[in-house]
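Blinded run. Sample ID left blank on purpose so nobody reads anything into the name before looking at the predicted structure. Input follows.
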Amino acid sequence: MKELSTIGIDLAKTIFYVHGADQSGKKLFNKKLLRNQVLEFFVNLKPCLVGMEAGGATHYWAREIQKLGHEVKIMAPQFVKPYIKSNKTDSNDAEGICEAVTRPSMRFVSFKTIAQQDIQSVHRIRERLVKSRTALACEIRGLLSEYGIVLPKGIREIKKRLPDILADDENNLTSFTRELIQDLLTELLEKNKSVLRYDKYILRIHKENPIAQRLTTIPGIGELTATAIVANVGDPRQFKNGREFAAYLGLVPKQRSSGGKHNLLGISKRGDKYIRTMLVHGARVMVAFNDRYTDRIPKRTKWISGVRERRGFCKAAVAVANKNARIAWSLMMKDEDYNAAI
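Blinded prediction complete.
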């Protein structure tokens, strides 16, 4: 039997499939494993290259298998799909992963440490709470509009005006509706407290992480964005340059080019939507209040003004987000703070 060189593993909750191949790519085995058999299977193998798709629990398995002496590489599912032949089955997926991981042009995902996953968990929970709070605020506003009461947008406005509306006996609200709205207000205040509690967690993480502190020296990047980047990017060296990092976040144009004609469309929106959204929101603030930063960062404010005049507000915001992403990569690589004079 030829020596095993590469293994593709299709991850799941209970049933895993592994496909092994030799150095020439010839199939050696394709077998099914139960969850409790996976690590035992890899313990008994000589060190080899192990490929897997990015997904749920991928980083856990990557860390555990790497501890056993194997080289582990993670790939995005969309890059593996072209290598899967015939029908969609777990065994075919494992075979496709095994072939894809050996391609010299393949792009890989760096797996996260436990500390990074802790930070990411805080962000994910906070994101869900914010969405839930926003949905609840919209529900309150929508219900009140049915009674002729219109509230401005914003959580602050609801908290400020709703107690007076509930106390007003001359509006069209019935006593039963007042009880319902009061319940919704109580729930909204509780959700808001939860969001503020997670904000404190993120501030604590920021104070304890020197990389996050360095990133917040960039105008337009705050504690939320900085800690999210730290959680997502383990080693900045996985990107060749800042432009590649910006492309990874989906902040570069899509292309539809052919025959020597280059056609650039809107941004690609690939990568982590959460980080991209926060970078763009921070950039929108920078563009909106650009005049306030004239003394601090004259070169940059002049550039932002020029882009806004030529391209408009939204495109200028995306351009600033792209530049901030590239600067963030540079600061992580060089271990330096942002220098406004450069």
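Unblinding after everyone has recorded impressions. The chain has 13 helices and seven strands.
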